[in-house]
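Bench notes, afternoon.
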Amino acid sequence: MTDLATNVSQPPAAGAAGRSLWATALMRLRRNKAAMASLVILLVYIFAGIFGPMLAPHDYARVYPDFVKVPASLEPYPRMDAVLPAAESTARRARLEARNIELDGNTLRLEATSRREIDPRVTRYFDRSDLFSNTHIVERSADGRSVLLESQVERYRFIFGTDANGRDLFARILISIRISLMIGALATGVALVIGVAYGATAGFLGGRIDNMMMRVVDILYALPFTFFAILLVVFFGRNVVLMFIAVGAVEWLDMARIVRGQTISLRRREFVQAAEALGVSAGGILRRHIIPNTLGPVIIYMTLLIPKVILLESFLSFLGLGVQEPLTSLGVLISEGARNMRAAPYMLLYPSLALTLLLFALNFLGDGLRDALDPKDR
């Protein structure tokens, strides 16, 4: 009796703190290792796109004529066995005859003669090259036909090699990640805002309004996209940001149809009818009940739309309507690598790996978000 009385007299335990639907989704997302790894990879891509071009050892637009299509290597260029032939070739262009060439570390000493008096400005031939810098005359003969030149050998590292124009491929990939992510984010964001609002409104109102709104979508579907892209260039010019905002304003059509179908299946659910019975406005029902319950399919479509826009940009750039030099994107780099695949396979390999990793990360993250936000699994 004493134990029973003691148990009865104890205060009830405090109830467990409730979780919001977003907190529950976040907890479930954290359990998905593939999704979290993909999220880390996407954050690395975003960081590389924002800060990478500023931290890269070379400017993405700088051309090195002496290092065209050099293979990827961790060792600096030029190779030591290539410095002496390059010095002889530069001396011949300056109309000098090289007598003796010595290389001490990164310092080059060259004895040269000429049939006539040597102009002191001959050092400019060496400084114009990517291999030599700070060239100056150390000694000069009395008649001025013999000089001793000293120059510093410039060493460059191209860890991903260079392209067909002699530009650092690593820096080009970093700037292409920035452009591709910016294009994908802008176009997808515009498609998300317009498509979700349009599709949810059409599906919830139904009837003649739904029919009229979807006929507008059908008419826009009939427009040839290539012709529309040419019109965009005519009206907006070659402005990448404005152009792909406009592209996103076309890509919302699929998003609107997906959201409309989900809305039609949700508008007669019990929680929607309960909200209507309580006097909640149509806009409130869309914001609080319809749109949140369509997030799963919407996010999955977003993960497919971003690579679709990236590939679309590559097609437009191939036609000369997209990204213009010296800017580039992953699609443009892959196109250039395909043209030089036999002579320089690394030009295709590294951009392809960068794009493939990005697409895998988007797909795995989309699957994880779908599982976390699916209302049927809560």
